[in-house]
Amino acid sequence: MGLAKLKTKISVEDYLAGEKTSPVKYEYVHGEVYAMAGTSDNHNRIVGNIYAGLLNRLRNSTCEPFMGDIKVRVSPHVYYYPDVLVSCEQNPESPYFRSEPILIAEIVSPSTQEIDRREKLLFYQQMPSVQEYVVIEQQKMLVEIHRRQADGRWITYYFNENADEEVEFQSVELTMTLGKIYQRVKFENSLKIV
Questions:
Q1: By the 8 A CB rule, do 104 and 130 touch?
Q2: Residue 187 in 3-state DSSP?
Q3: Would you state the pLDDT for residue 7?
Q4: Rounded CA gap, 91 and 98, in Å?
Q5: Hey, which CATH number is domain 39-181, 3.30.70.1520, 3.90.930.50, 3.90.1570.10, 3.40.190.10?
Q6: Residue 178, φ and ψ in degrees, nearest 5
Q7: pLDDT for 194
Q8: Are 146 and 133 in contact (CB under 8 A)?
Q9: CB 169 within 8 A of CB 176
């Protein structure tokens, strides 16, 4: 979810050092940094709902969910802040990022959907560890899961029928209904999921 690009290219080392003290989060793509935009209450509700489901499911697992403030190192020159990620790394290279996530989720807004659905999708699909990339709308009830198949191909699954429809996150063996994912979300057309 990028906002403004700074004009000067910086090194990865300077970026990582600056992120430890910066009050603003930045994503890094080949020397260019992009400030992260603020999020809405609905965005935070969805992130919280997904994170809570993952935290409960993975409580006794070696895999661990993170939200918002842990970066993903996509490559030596690309770092993103996904909304939610799950990593099973036992000895991560850094406490500030993960390099081998198995599940990544982004909650999109009108200003970020192009980057989330195209740029990030392509980058995440190149990471061998990623099994699922989840894109979740906050303006309407729609979840899309891009899932790696055994032969390496990717298939996209869409969930948007009703609050009782079950969404399966195969990488972590978790099933949540759309109603649980969108619990307390208030859509502009007054549809409310309780």
A1: yes
A2: coil
A3: 59
A4: 10
A5: 3.90.1570.10
A6: -60, -35
A7: 44
A8: yes
A9: yes
